[in-house]
Amino acid sequence: MLEKIQELEQKARFLEPDSKQRDGLRNKVIDHSEAFLESLKEEPAYLVTDDKGKALWEHPVGEEGAALADLLQLVHEQVDRPGLHPASGGHLAYIPGGGLFVSALGDYLADVGNHYAGVFYASPGAVRMENVLIRWMCDLVGYPDSAAGNLTSGGSIANLSGIVAARDAKGISSRKVAESVIYLTEQVHHCVTKAIRIGGLGEAQIRYVAIDEHFRMDPNSLAQQVKADKEAGLIPWLVVVSAGTTDTGAVDPIARIADITEREDIWLHVDAAYGGFFILCEDGKKLLKGIERSDSVVMDPHKSLFLPYGSGALLIKDREHLLKSQHYQANYLLDAKNDQEELSPADLSPELTKPFRGLRLWLPLKYHGLSVFRAAIEEKLWLARWFYENLELEIPGMERGPYPDLSVVLYRYLPQSGEANQFNLDLIEAIRQDGRVFLSSTRINGEVYLRLAVLSFRTHLDTIELTFQALKDCIQRIEKSY
Ligand SMILES: *Cc1c(COP(=O)(O)O)cnc(C)c1O
């Protein structure tokens, strides 16, 4: 038996490279990431390739290891290149993500340390760091000391967790679901409707409240609908508002909606996954006024705080609701329960073991300082406005949607002849093939609109000028081909 163990140990020890080996490995990865970052400016925002990373199937996991250089080459060719480059400042589609370098360093440290951020007893420092960040966000939105929250992998999970907590707080048992009513607009993010389904609320009555010409929820329609539903003997219990819709960047009038939810004793959930951190600048703060009166808020550091993907947050005004809904009980974890100086993430979310998400957020915030983030987020607002103000001057024939609330602009090209929808679909495809910038489209009342979404920390004025140029070139090319 000893021999067997020793033989296995010899092999198993390969999992722990020594200091010199680590140095070599790290240098290769750093060289790779440096080449990647340096090439971002020249690389297209979207690269159309034939193979789309298909060669990865030719390199299955096998018994023997491989040289790191060969593996990095594979990553470069098959992963870094094809498709959308979310790290590029030219990514102006959907809701762009970030990828702060200092955040990546935080991830490196968190992974090397493998700190267990699920339970306070296990890693008090890691959990405390996450709680400091949650408290910081609660202060941002104006939540009282009773608030708590959780760092999640993103907005979808944060919305799910928040809606489930609301369900439990409002006592919507399975028997009551069918007579319970949820209010949203058709502009709500699809992860909210998904959360409703996954949260066992698929049979609830869903009311799509009317929106105004800016795509914002109409509070008068909401009030009327709630009144009608109460008179019909139904149970209105949840209003989901968007603070920055994904499609148009519209911010629902939170304060006016809070007047209604407070009066009618309805849970107010604010999905601010996209727009939440615009609260760092004065204009954003004004738009988000009333958010402090909500019961729960979702905000995504991997959107408006420029972090790499994998960072969302749920905040709940009354921590008891989140605890009651999502605390854990396990005999084998009872000793961990005795040390309750701080709340533990495992008591505030469906997760037990989870990545230490705090460090990737804490390190860039502390290193750069808030003023830098404030400047960057305000710059994004002004870039969207600059695009809006100059679009028709730069490109005759362009028609603009409403003035942007945040950093999403809607517009479309009206061709001299031919069908506008088809032209704009062709235009978006031409932009994708061109690759210098990446834009997306949407449909509003059947009309195809193009979107410009400014949120990458690498997007600056020169990117907006490049966008004008790319649009002009592509329009010219299509008009010639017709
Ligand atoms: C992006 C987004 C979500 C979903 O968040 P993920 O982080 O992608 O899971 C939810 N709501 C809004 C308004 C969003 O923009």
Topology diagram in text:
Layout: H1 2-12, H2 19-39, E1 46-47, H3 68-80, E2 83-84, H4 101-113, H5 124-141, E3 148-152, H6 155-169, E4 180-184, H7 190-201, E5 205-208, H8 219-231, E6 235-242, H9 254-264, E7 267-272, H10 282-287, E8 296-299, H11 301-304, E9 312-316, H12 319-326, H13 358-368, H14 370-394, E10 398-400, E11 408-413, H15 420-434, E12 440-444, E13 447-453, H16 461-481
Parallel strand pairs: 4-5, 4-6, 6-7, 7-8
Antiparallel strand pairs: 1-2, 3-9, 8-9, 10-11, 11-13, 12-13
The chain binds pyridoxal-5'-phosphate.
Description:
The protein is an alpha/beta fold. The protein contains 16 helices and 13 strands. It has helices spanning 2-12, 19-39, 68-80, 101-113, 124-141, 155-169, 190-201, 219-231, 254-264, 282-287, 301-304, 319-326, 358-368, 370-394, 420-434, 461-481; strands at 46-47, 83-84, 148-152, 180-184, 205-208, 235-242, 267-272, 296-299, 312-316, 398-400, 408-413, 440-444, 447-453. α9 links the parallel β6 (235-242) and β7. α5 crosses α13. The structure holds pyridoxal-5'-phosphate (PLP).
> DSSP strand (E) fraction?
5-15%
| Helix proportion range | 40-55%
Number of DSSP-assigned strands: 13
Write down the Rg.
Answer: 25 Å
User: pLDDT under 50 segments (min length 5)?
Assistant: none
Can you write the helix and strand succession as a string?
Answer: HHEHEHHEHEHEHEHEHEHEHHHEEHEEH
Structural class: alpha/beta
Oligomer: single chain
Number of helices: 16
Biggest sheet character: 7 strands, mixed
Spatial separation of the terminal alpha carbons: 78 Å
Bound molecules: pyridoxal-5'-phosphate
- Widest beta sheet: strand line-up: 3-9-8-7-6-4-5
Q: Mean pLDDT, nearest integer?
A: 96
Based on CA inertia axes, which overall geometry fits?
Answer: globular
